């Protein structure tokens, strides 16, 4: 399903919030692109700017938000420059969103069939009866059992997992090109999480949509994403394919995130954590924002912001450790194990490719 | 639903019975007798009259006789107006009171909801500030002060509307405004608070993400959800209007039951006090019953007949 066609490009986005305390620099120069049919995960702690980023793509920033620069290109148009009217036509039709808490994201006084049908009626002008028939189809597609009898039920008659399926049905009814999933499983218990993630993967294949998947849970990312962007303090600090981020991370913040995730081979009694708290974005620190919490911080980190260093064609990380002149540091044990595994994976891939090449050569002969 | 209604009506009757009992004994504790303004009568004459009305019997006997009468639809005869049956007295006076009450309710609640919703939608703008000031004024100015101000400016100075008395729509305007001010302010404030909450909720965000316009979101999703709690204050607002009417009817000389009630308390007209109390209680309980039913209609989560899963 994946292709190289870029359908969304966020370029040097900067967003500030005017508050009583001052200007909060929530997004500080974020750039990424989204390819057709792929799943891009944006990972980071609360307050790192993940949600603000997605809200700006939907044109749903709070009133006190000020775009300080950059653009969001979607089909040759800058979302940030769209009129309210254009944004309304975009939302729910070409870009749809799933929210974090299914218990509160459905209108408690509207029948769910109507709620699912609503985007069809708004955007495609479908008549109510026809829209309801399509809503019923969508309910079946997202796995709501006994859909015929439940189409006229109210949200409180459904469990959390079922409600999230309904929210997904609402988002997908217009077959959007981009689906933004903002922590869609955070409020659900683990077994339901797995079901919802499976459902999202299935539906992505069926309706070929691109997904921006926002989460703070790396465990969820591994099974979902094609590419991962790690955000910290309003910036992307590292991005790459899911294998590159998981098995060959370069940024100390990514190391910290991965080390604080329990794995099957974690054998130490205590789970690692990243010391300290994210910086105050009212007055972001000079240099690398992660430096105060970074045990591998160099002197230059407190003075100058690191640029992106290229690791591979798809993998970039913003850390001075990648500078040719930087001292060699030893990452945490867990990361070393991961990197060993990555080396094996690459060797295997290389061997397979060579084997393939040999076969092809043989065939040619 | 029918079962629920029957149950509610049973409770309504039970409450009414308790109200009758409590009011009866409280009324007997009032100082004085119905004849306190008739000093010219000799004690023997007074005793004779009291005996004629059955007021010399022990209080518990009077109570039983009264309750027995009420169950047969007999509310006794007024002491104040020579031998008029109380039921006639009330039925001839309830019209103006009901008319004023209903007008005040409509004038209070509907603009209150609109103004409150507008304040919430235009939060932190001059619209919001203006509506908040108006509703704070409405809450803090007592209805009788507003009544006198209206009489002075609109009636006496501008000669736009009659100052007092009863006869046609023009006479109802000032008392209705005076009565409606406080319910209007309450509704506006309450609606604003609810609407602000609802507009910040996740399902409004989802509705926006669906591509609905701002007013579409408000009309289809926000309004109904913020009106649910507003329905609950209609009961207390009705009480507000009923008690307000006693004062307002006196100020505007309106021949309603509020005015009657005040007169009958001043003259210890026991049967009239009792009857007006019963009428007020029934009206209030019916309003509460209606609001509960309406509540069930607009909020599916508390619908009674629902098949629950």
From TrEMBL, chain A:
InterPro entries: AAA+_ATPase, ABC_Ni/Peptide_Import, ABC_transporter-like_ATP-bd, ABC_transporter-like_CS, Oligopep_ABC_C, P-loop_NTPase. SUPFAM superfamilies: P-loop containing nucleoside triphosphate hydrolases (SSF52540). It is a peripheral membrane protein. It is found in: Cell membrane. Belongs to the ABC transporter superfamily. NCBIfam families: oligo_HPY. This is ABC transporter ATP-binding protein. It comes from Secundilactobacillus angelensis.
TrEMBL record, chain B:
InterPro entries: BPD_transp_1_N (IPR045621), MetI-like (IPR000515), MetI-like_sf (IPR035906). The keyword Transmembrane applies. The chain crosses the membrane at residues 9-27, 98-121, 133-154, 166-185, 227-252, 272-298. It is a multi-pass membrane protein. Its main location: membrane. Keywords: Cell membrane, Membrane, Transmembrane, Transmembrane helix, Transport. It comes from Secundilactobacillus angelensis. Signal peptide: none annotated. Belongs to the binding-protein-dependent transport system permease family. It is found in: Cell membrane. Residues 94-291 form the ABC transmembrane type-1 domain. Pfam families: BPD_transp_1, BPD_transp_1_N. This is ABC transporter permease.
